[in-house]
Amino acid sequence: MISKAMRVGITYDLRDDYRAMGYDDETIAEFDSIETINAIDTTLQQLGFTTERIGHIKHLVSRLASGQRWDIVFNIAEGMHGIGREAQIPALLDAYAIPYTFSDPLVLALTLNKAMTKQIVRDSNIPTPPFVLVTGIEDIKRCSLTYPLFAKPYAEGTGKGITAASVIRDAGELESTCILLLEKYKQPVLVEEYLPGREFTVGIVGSGNTAKAIGTIEIILLDNAEKDVYSFINKERCEERVEYRLVDDTAAQKSAHVALEAWKALGCRDAGRVDIKCDSSGNPHFLEVNPLAGLHPTHSDLPIICSKVNISYQQLIATIMHNALTRYYLIGNAPKKLSSFIIK
Asked: What is the number of other CB atoms lying within 10 angstroms of the CB of residue 26?
């Protein structure tokens, strides 16, 4: 008897779909290119799965309403509207009892709110820079943090809202930068004490006690980059402005430990990244977590980390699927070849 291949739905927010609706490039910067979707789809098929491209949440709603179901959904949709936008598709899939990859709605809603995330990290005794949340002009006046400071929107990714002006040296700059961000992004501003040290991003796979750091890269800004900030424009043009250097020295190892502790404390699942920066004494601090990390094979940080430690894209996708299927007690239904590709 021939066993039936597992059916994997793929949910995502495609940049081209939103461009066709009239959104500008910065608004859709967190969304995926067709190259990313092609790479994930092709890899899942190579691993032995049958795939169906679903797309964004409204496509999913329509498919669910018509009665379609999948054995599991590979979800990388970031969502468009609301502070809980990354949690919407997982919550919908939970309602229909459909398994999915990556973190649950609680974690995705929490971690998009960078201020609340830092509160939990801080309460877990994991180092993170002192911070305040600015919701209006009165909060700016009450800010008692030590300069220099760093300001960014509290619920954006891909460096949106981060420019050279994000590094703040006095009260005047604090007011002008916060007012600009409040007006442009229509959301509170996270203001932290600025850390002048080395900056890392740590790749992590797994969940809970089985999670592990697979590699750490240092973010090194080149001479033609915006100075002192891993900004939106530096990320978008990373191939020409940023060097990603694989590191394993003492600071990198300490950073990986901090990242892994934060990943566990927040309850993140399957795979993602944690951003770390060092203070003037070289001590690593948690900045933010990305539980829905980009998966472009050559442009996104997590696949870049994998390539630098000789982990193939196929191994990364296989490991994500293996972790998710194991969590749902479905690993026995997985394609036989899957286990030979997981990261050891």
From this structure: 15
- Say if CB 240 and CB 221 are below 8 A apart: no
Helix (H) or strand (E) holding 266: helix 250-266
Which among 77, 158, 60, 157 is positioned nearest to 117, based on CA atoms? Answer: 157
CA distance 184 to 180: 6
Segment among 27-31, 128-132, 149-153, 218-222 with least mean pLDDT: 27-31
- pLDDT of 30 reads 87
Tens-place pLDDT, residues 168-189: 999 999 999 999 999 999 999 9
What DSSP string describes 118-169?
HHHHHHTT-----EEEE-SHHHHHH--PPSSEEEEETT--TTTT--GGGEE-
Neighbouring C-beta atoms of residue 81, cutoff 10 Å: 8
Residue with tokens 């424009």: 233
Listing DSSP states for 310-340 in one string gives: T--HHHHHHHHHHHHHHHTT-GGGS-GGGGG
Supply φ then ψ for residue 126, to 5 degrees. -105, 130
pTM recorded for the entire structure = 0.93
Which pair of structure tokens corresponds to residue 338?
């899957």
Which residues, in sequence order, are bridge partners of residue 131? 192
| 34-46 vs 313-327: helix crossing angle, rounded to 10 | 70
229 in Cβ contact with 219 (< 8 Å)? no
CA separation (Å) from 327 to 117, 206, 219? 24, 10, 33
Residue 191 CA to residue 180 CA, distance in Å, equals 13
* DSSP codes, 164-222: GGGEE-SHHHHHHHHHHHHHHHSS-EEEEEPP-S-EEEEEEESSGGG-EEEEEEEEEE-
pLDDT in tens, 281-321: 999 999 999 999 999 999 899 999 999 999 999 999 999 99
